[in-house]
């Protein structure tokens, strides 16, 4: 078939972007014969398509292959590769058709059969896929990919042993086959052979340290083995290798949830959602975690994601009804239909809201339920019509799911409707009364849930025999309520089995209503007994369902329910032991614990807690709760232990539970406020502290803790008032004095600050925090010897406290005492450092500690702000001169075009390129380099300049700059996020107004972000809004005569470019500018203008004006 003629001026169909006559047409015109022209066109289109496909440019690749097929319709490789494109796009039917067509024209290609097997597997045709891969092996017995893919199919069919054999064959043929190592590891994991699985995944990582699936698979293996510490470390490495990765954040969240650290779990889910904001499965997972942590307000909102179409949920399907879903609109006089969702337990748990809806004014409520619930729900108040699924429904004003009702009723932990709301029918009670045994204590048992539940293996007990330790207790008649899965296990055991005769939940309710207690796993019976108001002992796995929250032994949904949680995952035996002890107490077989004994247990627990022996303390508190589950002090102390362990969500729940049993205890509210603050629930924390003070107005700790919170919210007036009230209530309260001193420092009243810190020291000369805080006051006064002395005293008293060590480092560097200063400055990334701005990366190679660099590779990892990266990248040339063979500089994205000019850098990477990091000999922080090179004031590497603006950027900005004899750039504010920004930034550009009436100067605003709007209407050229990155800023600065700026990144940028810079500094300036000097050893062209009094910018600006006038008078620029 002759190729279709293509017009010479149209775009070439190969996708190159050139005209046809300048691309394939030009090449085709050289063909001496039509046959050779056809061959050349086929080769060109094939090679071009392959190049596009390998680059991920699938539409262009498809265009090339289809152009080729117009020339040769049966070209097997083109058909095969088109099939692979369809496979990559998820078009599996088309892929199978195209690859089958390729096989029809070339039936001896093992590659084609292998690809066909992959496609058939995605279509769910496992037998056909198996046959395709086997055919590939028949054509090429040493074809490793076919063995690997046969293993994947065997694994999908549950035949792990066959999968392992195929993978072993694949690896014998191709020992470096990374995917096969990973798949073999997954097989061993499924068999529980974790050591072998770990070795496989580690081998895959050794073959390619950047192969992210190996890290993910290794993490899952560690999880399965119960080694959650290693799982966390592995996922964190994977996060570095493949960012941004929603999957890895989700895995991290799952591990943190297993470890009961819900704050971290929620944090990682939020990060995952930042990466994949439209992933409704993620939203649903976040909802469950928020609800589990008791954060109902946000949790119910996210929980609406459960029925989003993208989740393909089969048990939550919105009905097709001719009226709208209720979204919280007023219900007065309206009709509402409640549509069922999820399981029987959900319908029972949330039908409690129907009386509440009636109270909101709903005129007519129809409850639709599953058939087995209909007779039971006949007793539910507020239902005007009861229907089962499938029955005809009349028109209503609204419909709703039952689990959406808490959202629109604004349910919190404290406002859940909890009264018994279901009852058994009298006739059913009579029917079952005669079938129940007589005994002092009748206990119902359920040990398994529905086999189809996705979490059944975790929540159900494998066999009734595990409950056997309970059966030898005299005085108890056990009644089996088990129905379906597991009920046959009741045969031959000492209990009455009724499950087989139960017809619906009205029968179950009639039995439960005549029992004294129900002991069950997490299944519908727990909700049914709770809704009937019967005592329930609920047996929960280690990581229980969100409905039971976390870290508490009671349920806000069912007041009569006691929760027994596994202490270790899978350990039912220990849990049953605790249940048995409780039953013995219930029967009076264990002597009752007296109030005196309970008090002794609490005292002993408190002594252990105060000694830091938290496991021992927790065991004693739980012993108290076994006797008295609602003991408020034991619950409160358990909450404090959770707080001490950093499990703040659990602490909040336990303290709220304690408050629910003793609502007039100010201590409970005070400590609840502390836990809420650490959970970032600041408004609730504020309310808790205020409640504590309402109960006890002279509560010194309450005033102090409220003041700390107010201080963090920058309400200094209120904070000072409460600190003073704390001191008035307890004149010996040392922490309040020192906290008040810190508050005065924050508002600039340094005399009062020093006075209160000194009062704290007078009360306790061993109080290290006061020395540290007093050192900060002297630092703010630029009294460096005194500051150094106080920091050293704080360190001597508390050697393990990192804060005074870091503070001492900063002051030493400010004083130019670099030798000790650089050493102590390594404390900035110590694990115990509060709110660190420098966080070590998790890299598979070690941190540089000054070892010889000759022939070695070094990665420089960014830290702190943009200015720090610019200031310290100067060391790269020096590192090169020491023999470093390869240097990778990792930087923030806005710096990348600027750093392209930096000499000595072999590879420049930005955050999104973490997965490109190769193995290096060492890594280092840039601000650690001066330590390792023993930098002193006189050995700082200084250059006329070490950065350059890109020439093309200079050309671009040249036309934007005003013509003037003297061009001066201005920056008057730093980043609002900087912790010292209020001190270092000018309040408004108007502060520089005295400069604007100087003739012969054109001022150019480089301000970007905070404050740039202040430039409008003033006599200066504003360019900040149009600056895209620091290469733009550099191109502007390079064409200026002078930059006048506050202490922000522009000072470092201009200095690195070798431009004259006048830096306006506060009274107590950053350590980088040292102290008591007007020049900078870091930047020779820099002049420093310091405040002579705290806050006096007017004097600084006046000195700048005078110096500008002197320059203008002399007719020269800096």
Automatic annotation (TrEMBL):
Is the keyword Magnesium assigned to this protein?
Answer: no
Q: Where are the TPR repeats?
A: 42-75, 110-143, 144-177, 178-211, 212-245, 246-279, 598-631, 666-699, 700-733, 734-767, 768-801
Keywords per UniProt: TPR repeat
- Cite the InterPro entries for this sequence: SEC_C_motif, Sel1-like, TMTC_O-mannosyl-trnsfr, TPR-like_helical_dom_sf, TPR_rpt
Q: Which Pfam families match?
A: SEC-C, TPR_12, TPR_16, TPR_8
Name this polypeptide is given: TIGR03032 family protein
What is the scientific name of the source organism? Methylovulum psychrotolerans
Starting at the broadest rank, the lineage of the source organism is: Bacteria, Pseudomonadati, Pseudomonadota, Gammaproteobacteria, Methylococcales
């Amino acid at each position: 078939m002759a190729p279709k003629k293509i017009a010479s001026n149209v775009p070439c169909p190969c996708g190159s972007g050139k005209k046809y006559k300048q691309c394939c047409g030009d090449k085709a015109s050289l063909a001496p014969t039509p046959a050779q022209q056809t061959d050349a066109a086929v080769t060109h289109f094939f090679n071009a398509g392959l190049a596009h496909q390998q680059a991920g440019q699938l539409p262009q690749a498809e265009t090339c292959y289809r152009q080729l097929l117009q020339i040769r319709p049966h070209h097997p490789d083109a058909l095969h590769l088109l099939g692979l494109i369809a496979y990559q796009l998820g078009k599996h039917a088309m892929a199978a058709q195209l690859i089958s067509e390729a096989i029809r024209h070339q039936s001896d290609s093992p590659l084609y059969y292998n690809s066909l097997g992959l496609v058939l597997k995605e279509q769910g045709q496992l037998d056909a896929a198996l046959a395709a891969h086997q055919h590939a092996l028949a054509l090429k017995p040493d074809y490793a990919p076919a063995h690997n893919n046969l293993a994947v199919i065997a694994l999908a069919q549950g035949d792990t042993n066959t999968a392992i054999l195929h993978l072993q064959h694949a690896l014998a043929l191709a020992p470096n086959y990374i995917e096969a190592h990973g798949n073999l590891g997954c097989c061993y994991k499924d068999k529980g052979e974790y050591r072998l699985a770990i070795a496989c995944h580690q081998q895959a990582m050794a073959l390619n340290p950047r192969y992210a699936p190996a890290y993910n698979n290794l993490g899952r293996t560690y999880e399965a083995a119960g080694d959650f510490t290693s799982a966390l470390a592995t996922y964190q490495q994977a996060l570095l290798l493949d960012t941004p990765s929603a999957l890895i954040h989700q895995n991290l969240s799952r591990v943190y949830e297993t470890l009961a650290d819900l704050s971290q779990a929620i944090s990682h889910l939020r990060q995952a959602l930042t990466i994949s904001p439209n992933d409704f499965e993620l939203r649903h997972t976040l909802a469950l975690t928020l609800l589990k942590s008791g954060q109902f307000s946000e949790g119910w909102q996210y929980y609406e994601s459960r029925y989003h179409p993208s989740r393909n949920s089969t048990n939550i399907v919105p009905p097709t009804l001719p009226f709208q879903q209720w979204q919280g609109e007023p219900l007065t006089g309206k009709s509402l239909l409640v549509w069922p969702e999820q399981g029987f337990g959900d319908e029972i748990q949330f039908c409690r809201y129907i009386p509440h809806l009636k109270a909101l004014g709903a005129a007519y409520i129809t409850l639709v339920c599953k058939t087995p619930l209909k007779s039971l729900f006949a007793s539910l108040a507020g239902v005007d019509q009861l229907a089962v699924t499938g029955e005809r429904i009349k028109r209503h004003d609204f419909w709703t799911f039952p689990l959406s009702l808490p959202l629109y009723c604004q349910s919190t932990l404290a406002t859940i409707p909890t009264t018994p709301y279901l009852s058994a029918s009298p006739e059913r009670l009579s029917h079952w009364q005669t079938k129940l045994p007589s005994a002092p204590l009748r206990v119902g048992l359920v040990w398994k849930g529905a086999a189809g539940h996705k979490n059944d293996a975790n929540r159900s007990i494998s066999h009734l025999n595990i409950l056997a330790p309970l059966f030898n207790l005299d005085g108890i008649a056990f009644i089996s309520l088990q129905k379906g899965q597991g009920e046959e296990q009741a045969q031959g055991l000492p209990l009455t089995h009724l499950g087989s005769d139960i017809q619906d939940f009205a029968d179950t309710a009639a039995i439960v209503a005549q029992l004294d207690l129900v002991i069950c796993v997490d299944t519908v019976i727990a909700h049914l007994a709770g809704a009937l108001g019967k005592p329930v002992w609920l047996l929960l796995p280690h990581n229980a369902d969100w409905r039971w929250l976390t870290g508490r032994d009671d349920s806000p949904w069912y007041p009569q329910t006691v929760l027994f949680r596994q202490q270790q995952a899978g350990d039912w035996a220990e849990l049953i032991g605790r249940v048995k002890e409780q039953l013995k107490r219930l029967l009076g077989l264990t002597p009752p614990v007296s109030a005196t004994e309970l008090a002794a247990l609490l005292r002993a627990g408190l002594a252990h807690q105060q000694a830091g022996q938290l496991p021992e303390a927790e065991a004693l508190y739980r012993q108290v709760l076994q006797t008295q589950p609602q003991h408020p002090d034991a619950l409160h102390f358990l909450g404090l232990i959770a707080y001490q362990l950093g499990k703040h969500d659990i602490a909040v729940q336990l303290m709220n539970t304690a408050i629910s049993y003793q609502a007039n205890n100010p201590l409970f509210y005070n400590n609840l406020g502390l836990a809420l603050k650490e959970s970032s629930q600041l408004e609730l924390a504020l309310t808790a502290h205020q409640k504590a003070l309402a109960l006890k107005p002279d509560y010194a700790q309450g005033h102090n803790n409220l003041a700390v919170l107010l201080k963090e919210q920058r309400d200094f007036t209120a904070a000072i008032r409460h600190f003073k009230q704390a001191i008035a209530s307890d004149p010996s309260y040392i922490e309040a004095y020192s906290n008040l001193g810190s508050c005065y420092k924050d508002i600039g009243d340094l005399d009062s600050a020093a006075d209160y810190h000194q009062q704290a020291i007078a009360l306790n000369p061993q109080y290290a925090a006061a020395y540290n805080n007093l050192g900060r006051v002297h630092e703010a006064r630029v009294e460096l010897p005194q500051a150094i002395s106080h920091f050293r005293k704080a360190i001597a008293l508390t050697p393990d406290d990192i804060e005074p060590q870091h503070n001492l480092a900063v002051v030493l560097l400010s004083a130019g005492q670099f030798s000790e200063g650089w050493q102590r400055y390594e404390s900035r990334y110590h694990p115990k450092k509060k709110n660190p701005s420098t966080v070590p990366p998790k890299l598979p190679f070690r941190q540089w500690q000054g070892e010889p660099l000759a022939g070695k590779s070094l990665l420089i990892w960014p830290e702190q702000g943009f200015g720090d990266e610019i200031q310290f990248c100067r060391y790269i040339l020096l590192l090169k001169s020491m023999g470093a063979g390869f240097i990778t500089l990792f930087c923030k994205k806005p710096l990348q075009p600027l750093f392209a000019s930096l000499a000595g850098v072999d590879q420049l990477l930005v955050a999104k390129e973490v997965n490109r990091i190769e193995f290096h000999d060492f890594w280092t922080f840039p601000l650690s380099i001066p330590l390792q090179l023993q930098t002193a004031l006189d050995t700082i590497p200084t250059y006329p300049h070490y950065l350059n603006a890109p020439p093309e950027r200079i050309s671009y900005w040249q036309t934007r700059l005003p013509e003037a004899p003297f061009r001066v750039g201005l920056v008057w504010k730093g980043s609002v996020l900087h912790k010292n920004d209020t001190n270092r930034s000018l309040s408004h550009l108007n502060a520089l107004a005295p400069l604007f009436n100087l003739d012969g100067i054109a001022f150019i605003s480089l301000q970007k972000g905070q404050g740039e709007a202040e430039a409008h209407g003033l006599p200066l050229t504003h360019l900040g809004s149009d600056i895209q990155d620091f290469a733009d800023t550099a191109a502007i600065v390079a064409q200026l005569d002078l930059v006048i700026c506050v202490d922000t990144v522009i000072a470092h940028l201009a200095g690195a470019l070798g431009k004259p810079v006048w830096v306006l500094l506060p009274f107590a300036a950053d350590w980088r500018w040292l102290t008591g000097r007007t020049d900078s050893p870091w930047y020779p062209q820099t002049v420093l203008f310091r405040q002579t009094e705290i806050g006096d910018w007017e004097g600084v600006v006046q000195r700048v004006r005078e110096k500008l006038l002197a320059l203008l008078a002399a007719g020269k620029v800096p």
